[in-house]
Structures are given as structure tokens and as C-alpha cells.
Amino acid sequence: MTRKKYDFEPTFAKGIKSDVVHQADIVPEVAFNDDEVHKQNGATRELSQNGNTKVPRDAEDGQEQSHDERPKASGRFGFVRKGDKQEMVGTLELFQFSTKFDIFLIIIGVLGSIIAGAVFIGNITILGEVVNIFTEGNSSSLNTNSTENEETDYLGEIMPYIYAYIIAGCISILSVLISISCWTWSAERQVATMRKRFFLSVMSQDIGWFDLHGSGDITSMFSEDMSKVQEGLGDKTGIFIQWTCTWLAAIIMTFTRSWKLTLFALPFSPITMFVGLTLFRTMRRMAAREAKAYAKAGAVAEQAFRAIRTVQAFQGQEKESERYQGHLGAAMDMASKKGLVIGLANSSLWVIVYVMFAGVMWFGLWLIQNDGLEPGSILQVFFGVLIGSVSLGNAFNNLESMSNARGAAVRVFKIIQQGSSINAFSSDGLRPDKLQGSIEFRHVAFSYPARSDVQVTKDLTFKVNPGQHVALVGPSGCGKSTAIQLLQRFYDPLAGEILVDGRNIKDLNLKWLRGQIGVVSQEPVLFDASIEENIRLGNVSATIEEVEAAAKMANAHDFIKSLPMGYKTNVGERGAQLSGGQKQRISIARALVRNPKILLLDEATSALDHEGEAVVQAALEKAGKGRTTITIAHRLSTIKHADKILAISDGEVVEEGTHDSLLQSEGLYYQLVQIQTQIVKESDLDISDVVIVEDTDELSVHDSLLGASFRRTRSNGSTAETNLVVRSSRRQSQISARSGAEPLSEVQETLPEPEEESLAVGLFDIIRYNAPEWHLILIGSVTAIIAGLIQPGFSFLISELIKTFELTDRGKQRDRVNILGTIILCIAVLVAVVRVLMNYCISKSGAYLTARLRRLTFESIINQDMEYFDSPYNQVGSITSRLSGDASLVQGATGAKVGQILESLSTIVCALVISFVYGWKLAFVVLSFMPLMVISGLIQGKVMAGAAHKEKSQLQQASRMCSESVDNIRTVASLGREDFFVDKFDHLIEANKRSHRVKSVVFGAAYGIANSVLFFAYAGSFYYGAVLIDDGEMEFYDVFRVFGAIIFGGMVVGRNSSFGVDYVKAKLAAGRIISLINRKPKVDVRDPSGEKLDNIAGGLSLEDVVFHYVSRPNQRVLYKLRLPILPGQTVALVGASGCGKSTTAQLLQRFYEIDSGALMVEGHDLKQLNLRWYRQQIGVVSQEPMLFDYSIAENIAYGDNSRQVPMAEIIEAAKQANIHNFISSLPKGYDTNVGEKGAQLSGGQKQRIAIARALVRNPKILILDEATSALDTESEKIVQDALDRASQNRTCITIAHRLSTVQKADKIAVVSKGRILESGTHKELLTIKGAYYRLQKAQGKRHHRDSDE
């Protein structure tokens, strides 16, 4: 339950940091807390990290959707933007999922809230009567001349009120227990039902709906919106009722005590509320702006860390640090201004309270002298009006939570009520007993819902006979993958029909239809479960023998059995623990285990190396026998033997036939073959090396048949940005496998928890980083101590007022009250000055500290070596979270917290001095309640956000499942496993509901007990005080001095009792931060030492290099690898995935230190060279080019961060990379923003910009790591030409799986298991018929040569 902060509230509320009130605390305190506004404001979340933010995507067939076109229900960071009109459901509609038992709980909760609110005012009433007893015992009446000297039996007279305190305490415990428990339990039950209905409705939607609703939006609704609804249904509503009853009871009580004094004091109430609410809203807006700045800084950090190899390769650390610090500066300025507003808020409200007290005191005395008012009524009216104002303000804040719940429920309820024309849970439709497997598309026209103005298929017509193998070919965006998705009925066509065995698929039961289809997609998607469970998703009834048989067919059994846990091995989120090839083989096994009648293969072997591909391709061909098979392939050699090939262009079949007949017709298929043949011209290879990748299609300006537009529609209906991200995930797994993240066989299934790398630090070690702001800290500390002295002074003045009532001389009374009133007004002025200075200085110093720690931590992280980033505990989401979270934790125990602690210590010292001076015996008795009050504060601090605010970890697993299911909805739908995930989700929700039932009772009991401690403290203190007065050891007013001072001090301790926990967390966080700031990587680019050669020609040599990754100490990646590279020579490294090729490339950039051997540069040991200078000599183009969210010009200039690159050089580099003409054709030219990760560009465009980036620094050494593997045929030709041109007169190291791209290399080195098996030219290696020759044969053994075609 997120509590609305910045209420002006008395100690009884502030002391517990909760909406449940310390019902017996009478001493007012107004506090605006700097750090709490972040907890209240939903905008404080930094981007990130982690994980639910969905990047818009281009779909496979060219569909693109801009950020502006995505449906938005709220502002970017989770709050409603100014000017947005928020739609709400009715209040009663919130409870539409309640059962009769829930209604019963709500009724009981309402009664508990009413009683809890009413009991509170009984406390003030009792206090006033106690004051009357003590004052009347010393003076018979201020309105008579009586001089009665009889001794008063204080103990006897006060005992009824002692009993009243005890009874009120017991009632408080019971009512709060009932209120909190019933409301929270009822809310959890209702929201559990909502969550289940919500997820069921989401999984029932068609794929077109998901194109318009990203997983980030859905997960946000599941977590954030549901939490807001739960707040509105839970104890927020109960507390609203409680506060409203408190306000109503306070007004009734004050009018019954003195309607005249109440009418005098009541006007201060709306003033207090107006000032408090106005300043609260101001601070909330400022907190939102501060959060935006931090979020932008977080986005910079995330982007830099995700592209860390690119950043370090081009030495962009300083540039990224400057960008990061720029956003921190904006956040720091806003935090400083916010501190000033907090100071103004606190001082303003304190001044109002003091002025009201002075006015009530003056007018109250007049009423005592002239209207017979009792002395205790002054305190009753003062505190009654004050508490009534606070209660109404708190009620409004909880009402705001209800409004937020009503707004959040709109989106949630719309999803729950959303129907779907393609519902996987529907039982409607035919279920034929037998399926032959014939497929027919009749004049199918289709547009994706996200871009209805772009028609993907126009008149798609073709027929597939039972058991026939049909291949779909064509340029990217032509509609091939769209046809696959339409056949699975992911969408319904706008026109035409799709028939299976002569029946329209709309007439077939959807679950039955998808159960007859096996799909292997280009991007294999696995779930966070064991390998066995992932394969069994294809057929939930499959036995372990059937699972293993399917794995054997997919060539996956051997590697699975080599894993520590075998088939029980968990693959991690999205199969992250496996290489791309391993994931694809498991995906194939999953499709084969269901023994489908129809098999759909969309680039099914794209992630496999050539040896693995040959085996799996043979398995797929075997599996396809007797089944209707539709294949999409860009390696045209893989489909030459298809029964029929359909060439598709612009959403229509332009030609069909066999491979031979289509070549004779010289149409589209012939053109594609010719392009591939041209690439491999003068080669002995077949055209199987050439790949057309639909989702990274390059623009063709040469051929109208292959034409596309810069913004295009793709086959899966999602946007380009997301598709690129998904592709990047697959490729990254391949890169990881090659660069040391070996297949899971080399990794333990579960890694041990890492020990916290943390130094033992203290508060002064933390504050040392705040040293430049010492003057702000000094002023803040002094003013905090003064503020702390003022607070017990106020309770002392109350006792002085009570003492005034024993005087019988009215003139002396007036004089004394005038003096007290003047002192109070002076204190009001002092408080105004002190609190403004305190909050401003401490907030500003804390903002500087946070910004400084973030900056230093960021600079340290971005300069760490790759060994740091390879650690599974240093994933991007984790380190960005730590970067922001640890700095915030440190600020939570410094900054404003230091001021609060100094103020608290000052208050306690002053309170103890007062209490022991005026009554040491009573002081000890009152102090005996201190441990209970501290424990009370700790208990309430633990659950201060309210019982309805579930711990984040409780629903984390369910939230992950929701996110994972939605992210991979196409795989879930094609498998027909929506019900499986819904059942699993329901089980998690039910488990959470059961645990929450117990917690709600525990929270209610803890609150009830903690809420009632002061009732018993009052009873005990007044009882013993009366005994001491009767014994003549104390005066009655001294009882109030001792009692008020210690109770007030105890409340301060209670309010800040969580500081101990915060301080421990801050120490650990500071230790981690300081350790990281001081962490020196093995390869430190910041080290200025090392030799800088005057001239470098590019000669390199690897001499007996041995290397292993730290994360795999027992797995050697390179073993005595020897490879001389002459200046200007082009050397190609070839071999299977994981053999050490990319590791070699990274060692040449000195991303890691080798274990033994030597890396020589021009005869000099690489370790002896200045690293910064050396990397300046290298240009890198990787398989997945990482571009930044800059303009094209800035991305190219990123290649040389040592200077300001002139525009002329940028253009020249673009020309060399064959991208200048394309850039010039864009509306903004070189100023065109490429989007996050270059999402606005196709794969070929990104690759050529990456080449230009590498060339702009004019490197002596060029490293090309699979630089064309992601491209389609046309793009590959253009980019390969650019690479050939770029490598001239440079030392060039090329890594490639497609051997056709390396045949012109001066030297080809075959790498296997970390060693060079053989090296030589292409012809030399073919002649000796060794490992290179076998690789060639593996690629071409299933196909005839195409050199004559």
C-alpha cells in the first residue's frame, strides 16, 4: 500500500509512518519527508533495467509502428501526464469481483474502522479531564474566591480515567485488528480473482491484439495497476473511513466542550489543509521531474552497458560518462529545489500550528475567566481541531488512493471484459476424426491490425496437397511468414479464405487445428523450465522415451545427456543458458514430439553450424515424409528438392513450380538464385551459404521486384524495433557461445550465491564523499539540532500553560499567557527559518552525494574489463539496478536522514534533561515504556505502507510468467498451451492468496498492538504521577513536563526507529559502491602507462596462447594457439561454433588477459603497450552492430571519440561503406535518428553504418566478426563490397561461418577446440583435403553444384 506522503500530520500519525494512527499521541508535529516522496510517487522507477519495458518492433514482413502510434494509457513513467483526462470506473464497480464472504469481511471492516476512529477522540477527551482534575486540585475555581485547602486524593479521582485508558487501549487493539485484517484479506481475495480473470482474458486474445499491446503494458497492468486497485479495495478504504470518523468525532467533541473556542480555532483548519495539499502537490510534481531525469540517466547507463564491447572498442567511456552526468545534473538541481520546498512546507505548517495554539491559548483564557470554561477544554479544543484537520487531510489522501484505484481499474477491467474472435479456450468448431493435410489459400488479403493501411497480402492463392513439401521464397516483406501465421489462425484474413482438408479454418476448433501443426521458427523460443518440460510442451502426454526419441531426431540428445542434470537441466529465461544452435534443436524436438500432420519450418536451421545443420536438415526431411510441409528458407539450396516452390512478391504468388522449371522461366526465383550465384562466383561452393533473412532486409535500389520502402510491413505483425531485439537475443547467444559462453554442458546448473564484494565502511566513510559540501552539512546539522531542541520546548510550554491555571490572580494569568504567547510566536519565526535552512542544506548535500556516487560508480563500471560483465551476477539489468538502487540506499541513511537523526538526538537529550530535572522517579517509569514504543515503531515501520501492499517478491514469479507468456505468445499459441500456462498461473495466485490470509491477520495484530502502546503508557504514567503528587514528591504540572517530554522523545525515536535498518542497508550499499569505485580491472583502459609506437603497420602474432573464461575455470577455450599475421594481410578464422574464433578476436582487442603465451604487436608484447593508444588502431565490425540512440552522423563519429570528427570525414567514411546515397535520400539525412539499438534501420543499413564507424578512425587493424551473417542476399552483396573495399591496405582479421566470404583471404586458419588445425589459402587447404575441406563438404554435400545454373 503506497502511502500518500507530505501530509501535515501530528506525532500521533507521523510517529508510526503509517495511515494507522498512534491513537494516544497528543503532541503535534508537522513533517515533510524528503525521501518518502519517492516512495509515494510512482515516477521514481528508473528505466531499465530490467525488464518489462517493451521496445517497439518491426515485424517480419515489414510492419512498423512508431512510438507515437502505440496506444498509451498513461505517461511515460507511469503517472498521468498533465492534461490527460483520466477515465474511472464507479466506486461500487471496484467491488464487482467480491463474493458474499468478501462482503461480510467488508462490513466487519467498516465497523472496525468506525470504532478505531472514534476511540481516538476518546483519548483527547480523557486527557482533558485528567488536566481538569489536576488543576482543580490546586485551585477550586478561577471564577470564585474560594480558598479551599483540603488535600485532594488525586489517585482516587484519576483511577476511572486510568481504567478508561486501559479500556480504550484494548478496544483500539481489537478494532484495528478487525479493520486491517478484514479489509486486506477481502482485497487480496478480490484481486486474486481479478488477476486470474485478467491472465485468462489475456491468453484468450488473438495475436493481433498483442500487436497493439506490448508485454510491458500488460505486465504493468498486472503489477502496478492491480496494486493500485488492491490499495483502493484494501485498508486504504478502511483508513479513509477511520480518518473520516476521527474528523467527525473531533468536531463533535470540540463543539460539546466549547463551541465558541471551536469556532475561533476552526478557521485554521482549512488554511492548514490548503497549504499542506498545495505544497504536497508541488513536491509530487518536482519528484516526478527528478525521477524523469534519473530515468534518462538510467537509460543512458543501460544503453552503454548493453553495448559495452562497442563502447570500449571505440573508447566511448568518457562520452557516455558526460551524457550520464548531464542527466544527473538535472536531477540534482530538481532535488535541491525540492529540498527548499520541503523546508517551506514544514516551516509554513509549523507556523500555522504555533499561531493557532497562541490564539487558542489567549481566547481560551478569556473564556475561562469570563465564561466558566474548564482549563482542560483548551487542550481538548486545540488538539481536537488540529487532529480533525490532519484527519480530514489524511482522509483526502486515502480518497486519492481510491481515485487512483478507480483509474487503474479501467484498463484492467477492459482487458478482463475483452472478447476475442479467435479464442484458444473456445470449445466451438469442428474436430474431424482424421486430417489428410491439404491446405489451400484462396484470394487471401490481409493487413496487420497495428498498421491496417499497409496491405501485406493482396491476392494470395495457392494449394498444397496432402504430404506435399512446398517452399515459399521471396524478398523480405513479401508475406511468407504472414502466410504461416494465417494458417495457424493467428489472424483472420480481411478477404478470401484458408482451407484445411476443404474446410475453412474458421469452422474448425482452434485448439484442435493448432494441435495438428508443428512449427519450428527462425527464432527458437524456450521457457524458463527444464529441457524435458520444454520439449513436452509439444505434447504434454509424451513419455520420457518419446521425449528422448524426438531429441535424437533433432540431433539434441547427445548434448543434453552431457549436461550435469541431463533432461532436467533448466534452460533459464528465454533459454539463456543455451547457445542458439542448442535452442533451435530443442525447438525442433518440441515440434517433432507431437507427431504433427502439418509441419511448418520457418528458417528452422538458421542457428546451426553447417555440420549440425546437415544432420538436423536430414532429420527434418525425414520427419517431413508423410506430412504436409511448408518451408520458408533463404538458403535456396535447402529447398531445391521441394515438390513445389512458390515465389511470392508484394503479397501474391508470382510464379510456382519446381526448382528446375522456375530457373527456366527466369522470374523472381531465377533472380534470387542469380544474386546468390554472383556472390559465390569463382567458388566451388553451392549456394547454400547465401541466406535471405526477412527481418533484416536491406533496401534494394536495383530491382523493382525486390523493392521495399524504408518503413515497411513485416510478416509477424510486430514492429521492427522489437523484432530486432529478439533477433539480437538469438545472435547474442551465438556470440556468447563463440566468445566463451560455451554451451550449458560447460556450466553448472546452479551457480553459488556470490559473496557481497563489500568493504566495511562507516557513516563517516560515506560522508567523506560529501566533503565538498561541508558548509551545507554544517549549516544543516546546526539547524537540525536547534529544531530538535524546539520540539520538547513546545511540550514544556504546554506544561507551563497548565501551570498557569493554578494561579488565582486573573491579572497574573493574563500576564503569564501573554508571555507564553509571545514566546510561542517567536518560536514560530525561529522554526520557519531553521526548518527552511535545515531541509534545503541537507537535501542539497544529499543530492550532491547521490549524484557523485552514481557518477563515480558509472565511470568505474563502464571501464571494467569484460570479465566483470561476463559474470552472471553482473547482467545489465542487475548492474543498472544496483547503480541506482545502492546510491538511493546510501542517500536514505545520509542526506535528509542525517538531519532527522540529529534532530531526534537533540530532542531526546533535551527531553531527558527536562524529565530528570523535574521528576527523576516518574522519568524512570515512563522510560520503561520506551522499549515498547521503539518496538512499536519498528513493527509499524516494517509494514508502514499498509498490509494491502504485498511484498514485491510474493507475486514476482507470477509476474514473470505473465511477462514470459506474453513475450512469447506466438510460441504459446502455436503449441496450443494457453491452458497450461493459465493453470500454472492460477496455482501461483492461489498460493499467494493463502499466504496473504495469514499475513493480513499478523499485520492487523501487529498494528493493533503497536497502535495501543501509548494508551497503556498514558495510564501507567498518570497513575504513578498521581501517587507522587499525593506523596508530595511532585507538583501536578511537573507530571506533564516529565510525561510530555519523554513521550514526545519516545515518539521521535519511534518515528526514526527504522533508521537503524536504513543505516545497515546504507552501509552495505556504500561498501558495494566504494568497492566498485575502487575496483581495478585486470585490463584497465584508464591506466596511462605503456608504450605508444611511433608507427604501426599492423603485424600481429599469437604465440602459444592459452585462455579460459573465469566463469568456467575448468574449460580451456584456447590452448597453445599460434597464429602469425603479417602487416596488410587478410586472415580468416573458420570453424564450428564455440571453437574460439570470436574469443581470439576479443583477445586481439585485449578485452581479457591471456593465461599464458604472448600476444605480439609489431614485435612488442601487447601488455607493454598503452591500451588506449592500441585500441585506437583497431576498427571493429561485429555480427550484430550496436548503434546508439543518436543521429547517423553521431553514430559514425563515435568511431573516433578522441576528437571532434569533421562532417567531411563522416561523409567520406559513409561513402567508403557504400551507405552515403541511402543516408542522403532520407528526409533529415545524416541528422536522422537511428532509434534505440538502430531500430529504425534494417540490418544491412546498420551494418554499413557500423563499417563507416570503424573506418572513420582510419584503423591499421580491422576485425570483422560475422559482419554479413545477418543479411539477406541483396544486402550481403552491397555490404561485402564495402568490406572488401575497407580491408584494402589494412591488416584484416575475418571471422565467418559462410566460407564463401573468406575464399579471397590471404590466409585461412581452421580453428578447432582452441587450436589452429591448419592454415593456408583457399586452394591450398582444399588440396590437402583436411578440416577445411570437410567443412566445405558439410556445407555442400546435400546439393548439386550450381555453377552451371
Describe it.
Residues 55-72 have a biased composition (Basic and acidic residues). Belongs to the ABC transporter superfamily. ABCB family. Multidrug resistance exporter (TC 3.A.1.201) subfamily. It comes from Elysia chlorotica. It is a multi-pass membrane protein. InterPro entries: AAA+_ATPase (IPR003593), ABC1_TM_dom (IPR011527), ABC1_TM_sf (IPR036640), ABC_transporter-like_ATP-bd (IPR003439), ABC_transporter-like_CS (IPR017871), P-loop_NTPase (IPR027417), Type_1_exporter (IPR039421). It is a single chain. This protein is an alpha/beta fold and 1349 residues long. The protein folds into 4 domains: 11-39 and 121-417 and 759-1074, Up-down Bundle (ABC transporter transmembrane region fold), CATH 1.20.1560.10; 432-508 and 635-690, Rossmann fold, CATH 3.40.50; 529-570 and 578-632, Rossmann fold (3-Layer(aba) Sandwich), CATH 3.40.50.300; 1100-1169 and 1177-1337, P-loop containing nucleotide triphosphate hydrolases (Rossmann fold). 55% of the residues lie in helices and 9% in strands. It has 44 helices and 20 strands. The strands form 4 sheets. The protein has a 6-stranded mixed β-sheet. The chain has a 6-stranded mixed β-sheet with strand order 16-17-18-13-19-20. Strands 2-1-4-5 form a 4-stranded antiparallel β-sheet, covered by helices on one side. Helix 19 (610-624) links the parallel strand 7 (598-602) and strand 8 (628-632). The longest helix has 55 residues, at 317-371. The chain is elongated and about 120 Å long. The two termini are 71 Å apart. Residues 1-85, 140-149, 680-756, 943-953 and 1341-1349 have low confidence and may be disordered.
